[in-house]
Amino acid sequence: MSSRTTVADRSALRVLAHPVRSRVLAELRVHGNATATELAAALDTHTGATSYHLRRLEEVGLVHDTGTGRGRRRIWEASPERGPRPDPDERPQTADDASAAQWLALDYVAHFGDRARGWVQHREQWPQAWQVAGLEDHLVQVSAEQLTALRAELVEVLERYRRVGQGNPQAKRVVVYTCALPVDPPPRPGAAVGVP
What we know:
The chain is mainly alpha-helical. It folds into 2 domains: about 120 residues, Arc Repressor Mutant, subunit A, CATH 1.10.10; about 60 residues, no CATH class. It has 6 helices and 2 strands. Strands 1-2 form a two-stranded antiparallel ribbon. The longest helix is centred in the middle third of the chain and has 28 residues. The chain is globular, with a radius of gyration of 20 Å.
């Protein structure tokens, strides 16, 4: 990733670290194109505030106007990128960048919790064939390099399935969250890598 891209990603990260903006972007990504009025209704906020937040997201390239609206009725779409991902090999983040990244990560966890609760509460309304969806965890033992490879393989599988159901009337959109979290305690300062 170039330094220019990294700076843009960091700007996007700081803009996105806001409760309304993160939800607006999530709403557009999950439910598709919408006007500020439709987004305000879905998120229980005001149209004027939603329009302001859409413009801020547009400034950093996370959303854009589709150009298909009429008059002042703009129709917004999430940009195809997944969101800001500062390059860890670039210079260290500022304190503001680090705070924004942490807030966004915690907001993402809260958003996941909301979706998971919604599935648990409503899963019985789905046909039996769909009951394979849900929550599960798998414990693996890997090195840091193997964890990187594991995540890359999972992304590859998800990319393969991203549009596999298009055109199939039986296909439904499914969001797949991945969360690889170490369960062992972190290494002691000064300890050799891989030694608890």
